[in-house]
Design a protein that fits this description.
Elements lengths: L1 H28 L1 H8 L7 H4 L4 H11 L4 H132 L5 H14 L13 E4 L4 E3 L19 E4 L4
Antiparallel strand pairs: 1-2, 1-3
Bound molecules: zinc ion (2 copies).
Length: 270
């Protein structure tokens, strides 16, 4: 803005200077003033005082002046020289004005280019910062995604492991249940046989009856923890049926073999 103001001031001053030169040329070409400045011409009439060319001035001068013709010719030549000189000055001033205007335009164009370049550089820097931030965010999200995928894979593996373990425990429980059913069936048969033997009062069968009664007492022995409740909890993996329903969840190791408990199965004795 300062440059534009300076250029405007320069243009206005140059325009004023050129106007003054043109006014000076007009005044110089005016016959009345010219004759007054020369100092040897008498005042002219109203018709002769109107603005006119140098040729008109010469005509008026030749009609009114009483001086010799040689001197009049010198004055005319002097006026022509001054007029041409002033015209040359005006042309020089116009050329200078054009040069200044061209220089100011070039400088303005250069400043505009620099300003545009600075704006573009600032915009580019801001966009590059945003781009870097976006790339860092994308990289961070990618790492987080990778970590989550790894976590999902680990959980899938763990899930499969737990599923296999559950299937194994289920198979073990089924096998134990089948064994227990077989054992209970054998016990029932033994009780029936013992009853039959008691009825027959056979000497050879007394020993078997006592053995079956011992098995029943062994089976119905009390809980190994509280020595009160009926054993109904089967411990894994040792498969000892030695705890009642109240003591089963409370212990961490089998009271018979001291094996660490990994699971338990409640046995329905009815
Ligand atoms: Zn108990
Ligand atoms: Zn045990």
């Amino acid at each position: 803005m300062a440059v534009e103001a300076h250029n405007l001031h320069l243009f206005s001053s140059q325009h004023l200077l050129r106007s003054r030169f043109q006014l000076l040329i007009t005044i110089w070409n005016q016959p009345s003033l010219h004759t007054m400045q020369m100092g040897f011409l008498s005042p002219v009439s109203g018709a002769a005082a109107a603005p006119g060319s140098v040729l008109g001035f010469n005509n008026v001068a030749s009609a009114a002046v009483l001086a010799p013709r040689k001197r009049l010719r010198q004055v005319s030549l002097l006026g022509d020289d001054m007029s041409s000189h002033l015209q040359q000055q005006v042309l020089d001033i116009d050329r200078l004005i054009l040069q200044h205007a061209e220089r100011a335009r070039a400088e303005l164009t250069e400043r505009r280019k620099r300003f545009t370049t600075q704006i573009l550089a600032a915009l580019e820097e801001g966009m590059s910062k945003r781009l870097r931030a976006s790339q860092e965010e994308v990289a961070r999200l990618g790492k987080m995604n990778w970590a989550l995928e790894e976590r999902i894979k680990s959980l899938c593996v763990e899930n499969q492991m737990w599923r296999d373990m559950a299937q194994s425990n289920e198979a073990t429980a089924n096998a134990l249940r089948a064994n227990l059913e077989q054992f209970l069936a054998a016990q029932a048969r033994a009780e029936e046989e013992a009853a039959t033997a008691d009825d027959a009062e056979s000497c050879c069968c007394v020993g078997d009856g006592e053995e079956e009664a011992g098995v029943r007492r062994e089976w119905r022995r009390a809980c190994r923890s509280c020595h009160d409740g009926e054993p109904s909890v089967l411990l894994l993996p040792c498969r000892h049926l030695c705890l009642c329903a109240a003591c089963g969840p409370a212990v961490d190791a089998c009271p018979v073999c001291q094996c660490s408990k990994s699971g338990s199965v409640c046995i329905n004795m009815s």
